[in-house]
Amino acid sequence: MAYTVNKTNSSASPNQYTVQDGVVNAQTDLSLIGKGYAGYGELIAENFLHLLENFSNSSAPTKPISGQLWYDSTAARLKVYTGSSFVPAGGNVPYQSTAPSTLSTGDLWVDSDTGQLFFYNGTASVLVGPPAATGTTSGFTFDSILDSSDVTQNITKLFNDGNLIAIVSEDEFTPKVSISGFATIKKGITLTTAISDTKFQGTATDSDSLGGVVAANYMRSNANDTTSGTITVANDGGIIVGSDSDFTVSIDSGGTILSNATQDTDITFKVNDNGTTTTVMTIDGSESRVGIGTTSPSTKLQVSGTTTSTAFAGPLTGDVTGNLSSSGANTMGTLVLGDKLTTQEIEPDTDATYDIGTSSVGYNTVHAKATSAQYADLAEIYVTDNNYEVGTVVVFGGTNEITITDEKYDTRVAGVISANPAYIMNSKSDGQPVALAGKVKCKVHGTITKGAMLVASNRTGCATKSQHPPVGSVIGKALQDYNSDQTGTIYIVVGRC
User: Fold this and answer.
1) 71: alpha, beta or left, given left = phi > 0 and alpha = psi -120 to 50?
2) What is the pLDDT tens value at each position of the chain, 497 positions in all?
3) Is the domain of 298 the same as that of 389?
4) Is 251 found in the same domain as 184?
5) What does DSSP say about strands 423-425 and 432-448: parallel, antiparallel, or unpaired?
């Protein structure tokens, strides 16, 4: 007669198994033996053995039911069947180099390579600790040490990858046993001095001092303030005044610049004259005129009142009524202004100081005999790609007429940027003077002997020596010895091949 085996959970599906006479029911991983089955003893014994060993095997039981235990011999771990899969049973934490593939939410495992504990949150493994791999310390640790007075001090240490970065203390003290990087431990957070450039990074809302200077000694940028020291603006940009940056004091290569940026407005110079504010000079912005003693100049320069001068220097332009004369030791007689200036001799009072004409306005033809020149080279103005330094070697090319050299033996070589040419061709053109012949300073590098032929170098803007230069590549010859791989300048003669 058949019999029924019921599960503990009556709501499970199935909740029972029926065993027929003379057969073995194989619906589970145990053998359920029917009445009259021959050889039942072995099966009963095997059932007990399988239960005793928890179905120990490298593979899971093939017919598990909820609550069934299985010892995974490969992972050396006891697991329980949840109704859908086998999961590790509590108290047996996997110890392996990678996360187990069968983790359930809340499961723990230990990384055998790093010695760190992880838990599974249902999606990924989350580090529990320690923060760093075995053998290194990272994070906060707590310690009690003696100070130099044998008083116990409780401190918190901050480590990263085994290195002590900072110590937190509620008191300032000197450790009895020295700690590298911490000669004195300050109240609060003390950073190590053993690691260079260790500092707090980020934005601080307040500070007692900056650069060793207390905060109260700094000037405000958003309020009226005063200083007992000297204000120095150590850049050519200078000082900007006005809500719209109206007025600036700056520096350029020509000197100091006072600039009013507001269109058609004046610059006024005022003084306190015996208690009265008086305007002494006005620069008319709308007419580009200067008035001394007047606020409304009608000419380029208008002086209201009597002027006295011990000398007059500079060009005299415009109409002159009557004779212009000079008295004293340098009497020149009558100066006649009209179609021409007639005089016996023009002689400056200082040698090699004054010019005839200017760089923008000159005479058409000068009939004279030149006996000397102050400077040594013949130059011509060329349009350059950039404003190059004196002594720079340039070649024909670039976006304009002339560009800087960067190729050795460049046969396009044009010359050297000159400082003060003796003669400038094409002088009214825009650009820079390029020495074509004569003595000039030139940028060089390498070993150079006096008289050596010089060619363009692959070092930008420089010349160097060449014993057998290609045709058309010679800049000139050296007038000085030079021996350095660093860039320097020497005098050379341009065009002496």
Assistant:
1) beta
2) 888 999 888 888 888 999 898 899 888 999 889 898 988 889 899 989 999 999 999 999 999 999 889 999 988 888 889 888 888 776 667 888 999 887 888 888 888 888 888 999 999 999 887 776 666 777 888 899 999 999 999 999 998 888 999 999 999 999 999 999 999 999 999 999 999 999 888 888 888 888 778 877 888 878 888 888 888 888 888 888 887 788 888 898 878 888 888 888 889 999 998 999 999 999 988 888 999 989 889 898 888 888 877 776 666 665 655 555 555 555 444 444 555 666 667 777 777 677 777 766 777 666 666 666 778 889 999 999 999 999 999 999 999 999 999 999 999 999 999 999 999 999 888 999 999 999 999 999 999 999 999 999 999 999 999 999 999 999 999 999 999 999 999 999 998 65
3) no
4) no
5) unpaired
451/282 Cα distance (integer angstroms): 59
Q: Considering its fold, how many domains does the chain have in total?
A: 3
| Domain around 260 | 241-305
Judgement on whether residues 474 and 391 belong to the same structural domain of the protein:
yes
Q: Does the residue 487 lie in any domain?
A: yes
Q: Identify whether residues 184 and 293 lie together within a single domain.
A: no
Which residue in this structure is represented by tokens 């070092």? 459
